[in-house]
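S., here's the first fold you wanted:
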Amino acid sequence: MTVKKAIIPAAGLGTRFLPATKAMPKEMLPIVDRPTIEYIVEEAINSGIEDIIIVTGKGKRAIEDHFDNVYELEQNLVQKEKFDLLEKIRKSANVEIHYIRQKEPKGLGHAVWSARKFIGNEPFAVLLGDDIVQNEIPCLKQLINEHEETNSSIIGVQQVPDSETHKYGIIDPESVEGKRYKVKRFIEKPPKGTAPSNLAIIGRYILTPEIFHFLGEQSIGAGGEIQLTDAIENLNKVQEVYGFEFEGKRYDVGEKLSFIKTTIEFALARDDLREPLLEYIESIKPNLKG
């Protein structure tokens, strides 16, 4: 069964970006001129997803407004013949976007569980907004292809430095075939020096609906929250869950420094910004010495 529905959790408080996120959802922070969540929605659309549910929380209304139709703005762009901008703001029209509010901040696992009625009894995707992945074949599409071959849950993984494994969910691989790993254990943020590998879970999942049974147990894990990784570990005991080392460059936009680096790289990739930005960087180099 192919995957046509996706969950995008967006209920986090965004404390790493305070005070900017006191009134603005962190998912709406722009990378050059596009909010981060727009890159996630675009990946879902380009992967064949037809229905998206965004799990929001208090103060996230701006996300709904962003993906809504704005008649006055569209008419203004038509009158000014700015059809390139009109096309950009209409991109999300190719997918149905729905919303549900996570009433309490109980963690990622609880956010996914909150969307269970929308998903029903079919496999689905989860995309986290802290990771943007660029590749000719979208990251999520790579996972969907693996799911269609295995009919199993597929978890996107990439190698991270050993010094950073404590920041991620980590897989303990049993065997590997190509880029697909049979997994012995899924471990949420292992203490420093205890990780069984450097293969980290990176914000992309294809899950079978049986995951909701384990999320429904509301078990408290790392950080005092209901962890999706813990539910995946339990699911793996009753049906195969694979890790898949996807191809593509991953940008971590969940921390300030990496967000700034991402913004610079994305700006340098644009024809209208590359040269003036490079000139500016050269001009400030003397001020950076000493």
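And the second, which I think is the more interesting of the pair:
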Amino acid sequence: MNPSIWVAGARPRTLPAAAAPILAGVAAGVGSGQAVPLWRLLLVPALCAIVALALQVGVNYANDYSDGIRGTDDVRVGPTRLTASGLARPGTVRNAAFISFAVAAVTGLVVVAISGTWWLLAVGALAILAAWYYTGGRRPYGYLGLGELMVFIFFGLVATVGTTHVTFHAVPPATWAAATGVGALASALLVVNNLRDLAADAEVGKRTLATRIGDRATRWFFVSLLVVGFISTLAFAGLTTPWALLGLVGFVVLLAPVARLLAGAVGRDLIAMLQATSLTELALAFGLLIGVAVGS
């Protein structure tokens, strides 16, 4: 099978949501003056990034499989769906998700062994369960309107705070500001994704948050998450260095897409919004890291 199909099925546009909290977690430690050996500063976050990326790819394949076998992906305007389109057998897609989870688990075990924080094994297990049960199982929480909350928790708080903790053995206040910022933008990615699919989801009975609160409220909820990300960056800069305000640069690319979103953009017109939000989250994390490096 063409490898490009599997790359598309992994939904590359979502991967910044996995990388951003790792960068932000390192930025929080550096910006707060935490000192660690260079090997640790380079190795541990790199391993954390592998864990986060593997989890993100795993949840994307798991979502593809679960929605595909339920029939809720039969009509979509977004990325390639391997199961629903018939490009791959359902069992193969499911196995790809399990392999991704296994990579995350093994790499996470190495991180725990290096850091000595064995209680994080329980957190890792919860993260894998959350990835599977987003759309898997009999009562997936993604169908209960809880997807955005779980993304904020695991791809915001857990990933960012966890990275700072295992790298620096500390969780300074700036970590929570960084975690809130990237978590809000990661949640915003899911909000705009569900807004794009709102009509199709409502038709097949997929009860995302967007289908529960409606089109207009979803659009303003998205904007409110951007505001949270903006304010969190200001808070981070106040706790570390003014140079961390470089994290705000990425918000510039959202100005035009947000205007179109509030004007009523739908369907494929929202794909640009997804791309801009993804870039903004990554730019925020890079900006924080570059800012604290310059400031220190």
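Why I say that: The mean pLDDT is 92. Residues 17-295 form a domain with the Farnesyl Diphosphate Synthase fold (CATH 1.10.600).

Talk tomorrow,
H.
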